[in-house]
Amino acid sequence: MNNTIHNILKEHYDNPFGPIGWKVFVEEIKQVCYKKNQFVEFQNGFKEALQKVYKEYISSNEDDKIELYSQRVSEIVLRFSDFEKQEGPVVCEEYSPEMQMEILGLDLETIKQPVLDIGCGETGGITRYLRKAGISAFGMDRIVEKEKFLIQADWLKTKFGKDKWGTVISHMAFTNHFIFQHKYVGGKPEEYAQAYMEILGSLKVGGEFYYTPDLPFIETILPKDKYSITKKAIRDDIYSVRITRLK
Length: 247
Fold this sequence. Notes:
Layout: H1 2-14, H2 21-36, H3 46-59, H4 65-79, H5 97-104, E1 115-118, H6 125-132, E2 137-141, E3 150-152, E4 165-171, H7 174-183, H8 189-201, E5 203-212, H9 216-219, E6 227-235, E7 238-245
Parallel strand pairs: 1-2, 1-4, 2-3, 4-5
Antiparallel strand pairs: 5-7, 6-7
C-alpha cells in the first residue's frame, strides 16, 4: 500500500488540485484502503488528520518529502482504522450480472421495480445490466464510477426511505459485512442490524430483498406476519435468501 500512497502524493505534487486537493486526496486514500480490505472502517478524526498532513505536505520544501509524508499517511491509516486487525486483506471483487442473477434467483421478467443494488461494485455491473433491459435500477457502494444511477455512500449512513423499493439486492456485500461485524471482536453488529431493518422497511408491500450469504441469526427473529423467507442452497453452508414484505 505504501507504493500506492507514494504515487498518489507524487501525482498531487506534479499536478496540484488547488483548494479541493485535500478532499480529492482523502477520497483516494480511502479507496486504496477499501480495495485492499473491503471490511476496513475509519474512526472519527481520520479525514481531519489526513487534511492536516496534506496541507503540510503541499507547503513543505523538504527534498525527500514524498517519502516522509508517505510514511505519515500510512501511520494515520493504521491509527484511525482497524486495517491490520482484520482477518487478512479481502479484495472487493465484481461478479458477472448473469452469475449474480442466477445465484440470487432473480428474473428479468418478474423483478419488481425500482431496484437498488447495495454494494454494487465500482462499475455497478448488475445495475447497468438491469437498466439496459429497461428496468429502473440504481447501485450504491463506497467506490463507484460517476453515473447518475450510481450512488457513492456508506450503507450505515444511508437513509433507504420508506415503502420505496420494489427490489433490493446485495450479492456478497452487505450481509457479508454484517456477518464479519457479528463475529469480529470490536465490531458493530447492532448498527448493521439497524440498517438491515431499515432496508426491509424501505421495501414496498410485496417488495423483496435478495441477498447472499444468509443471516440465520437475525432471519429467525423476523416477525412472520410481516416477512416471508425463502432460501436456496448455493453450496454446503451458503444460501441465497429472498425476504418478501407482506404488509
